[in-house]
Write a structure and sequence with these properties.
Elements (H helix, E strand, L loop, with lengths): L1 E3 L5 H13 L3 E3 H4 L5 E3 L6 E6 L7 H9 L1 E3 L6 E7 L6 H11 L7 E6 L15 H23 L5 E3 L6 H16 L5 E3 L9 H5 L5 E4 L2 E4 L10 H5 L5 E3 L15
Parallel strand pairs: 1-2, 1-4, 3-5, 4-6, 6-7, 7-8
Antiparallel strand pairs: 9-12, 10-11
Helix pairs in contact: 1-5
């Protein structure tokens, strides 16, 4: 089985392809967190984790899920992990495996990253990619994903195909810790009421249910479930949703948009 999390669709695209190639079940982590997070495996079934890199770390929601995850008789089962990112992942996979060890689960012996179009635009130096760069990233990742899928189907072990970037420890453990500890919040989201067309798209795409329509306008619940995936922002057809003031002149992106 493959557990996945995705906000703007990059990881969902990759996870769906891997599930097709392996013929194994695909489970969406926000939905699984509503249950007991206990599972049993069929003989020789793989364990997979697919998620976006958030601030050079596994997303908080993924780490929370792993802390609750129990897989009966998981010992000896092949485990892999794939993460999508805008450029680099730092020590994301090392942190994932530390979490798996703490949960007494098999570690991922095959780890992969895919550089996909940028979707995080809430810092002064971060923007969506140009259409040309977006196409280039997806085309390259499509080819890599075929190679990764073949390795996973063949249960290749001791495989690392990741882009860790410069100073990976600092990016994950210092900058990433600050980012995920202080900046993953829904408190800065706003809506321009004069632009909102009350379509409900933002509510429908929020992966954690943190957003509801109140008097036909989006309202964030401030219940610590927000992952700052920006699905609400990127899917808004009128660019009515923003994160503070910094995103007002930024682009929008989700996988498969036109």
């Amino acid at each position: 089985m493959t557990f996945y999390f995705s906000g703007t669709g990059n990881t969902r695209w990759a996870a769906e392809l891997l599930a097709q190639q392996t013929g194994e079940q695909l489970l969406f982590i926000p939905d699984e967190l509503k249950g007991d997070c206990c599972y049993s495996l069929s003989e020789n079934e793989r364990i997979g984790f697919c998620f976006p890199t958030h601030g050079w770390q596994p997303p908080r929601i993924v780490r929370s899920f792993i802390s609750r995850l129990h897989i009966e008789h998981a010992e000896g089962h092949y485990c892999y992990a794939l993460t999508t990112c805008g450029d680099s992942i730092g020590q994301t996979m090392e942190m994932l495996n530390d979490d798996l060890r703490s949960a007494q689960l098999p570690v991922a012996t095959a780890v992969f990253s895919l550089v996909m179009p940028e979707s995080y635009v809430c810092l002064p130096f971060m923007y969506t990619d140009s259409p040309e760069r977006e196409h280039e990233k997806i085309s390259r990742s499509s080819e890599l994903l075929k190679e990764y899928a073949a390795m996973i189907v063949e249960r290749k072990e001791n495989v690392t195909h990741t882009v860790r970037g410069a100073a990976p420890w600092m990016m994950s453990h210092i900058i990433g810790s600050y980012f995920n500890g202080r900046m993953v919040s829904d408190k800065k989201f706003t809506v321009d009421a004069d632009l909102c067309i009350h379509c409900g798209k933002c509510e429908s795409v929020c992966p954690t249910g943190d957003l509801v329509l109140t008097d036909e306008l989006p309202t964030w619940l401030h219940n610590n479930s927000c992952t700052c995936c920006l699905a609400c922002y990127h899917h808004c057809p009128r660019h009515a949703i923003n994160y503070g003031s910094i995103t007002r002149k930024r682009g929008q992106y989700f996988f498969g948009h036109k």
